[in-house]
Design a protein that fits this description.
By secondary structure, this protein is an alpha/beta fold. It has six helices and six strands. α1 crosses α2 and α5 crosses α6.
């Protein structure tokens, strides 16, 4: 499995089978990555997602990709506003945790595997509205992808791309990739 880190717009990854939405448990497309997906992909993604909601924190659900160039959007619930979401432990000052982000990453990969996809793009999960630190997010997500690769050596997934919005997020993810054991 190849892991890439790039700076860019996740809605412009035409060469990949699926992109991941940094979702809430209600699967409502709001701001940030979800807003970009709504604007470029269309309201049908929002309607299809909400029909599958709610999902638990750390879970992932799949919809079509609407007008996006991909086959699917995988909605990774890394934050939520429901009473049951509030009871899940979070990092102080954030609406998420490293464990939730790890689970959301792993479950997104599982959904991609179930569809026999070969490529998937992830944004930084829970670093916008949920206020989770980008460096901790990068560690959680990259470790989760590497663990998934170790546990599924015959995976259909051949490429995982982290698409970061802005130089700062990109640099943080690239640095974490280099520094973690098994780096670039």
């Amino acid at each position: 499995m190849k892991i890439e880190v790039v700076e860019g717009d996740i809605t412009e990854q035409a060469d990949l089978d699926a992109i991941v939405n940094a979702a809430n448990t209600e699967l409502i497309l709001g701001s940030g990555v979800a807003g970009a997906i709504f604007r470029r992909g269309g309201a049908e993604i929002d309607r299809e997602g909400q029909a599958k909601a709610p999902i638990k924190l750390g879970e992932a659900a799949v919809t079509g990709a609407g007008r996006l160039p991909n086959k699917y959007v995988i909605h990774a619930a890394a934050m939520g506003y429901r009473p049951e979401d509030a009871r899940v432990p979070k990092r102080k000052g954030s609406l998420s945790s490293a464990e939730i982000i790890r689970d959301a990453t792993m479950n997104s990969l599982r959904r991609a595997e179930e569809l026999r996809l070969q490529s998937i793009a992830f944004p930084a999960l829970a670093t916008g509205v949920a206020a989770f630190p980008v460096n901790e997010c990068a560690v959680a997500m990259i470790k989760a992808v590497r663990k998934y690769e170790q546990e599924h050596p015959q995976s259909s997934i051949k490429l995982v791309r982290f698409v970061l919005f802005g130089e700062s997020e990109y640099k943080t993810f690239a640095d974490v990739m280099r520094c973690l054991p098994g780096g670039e």
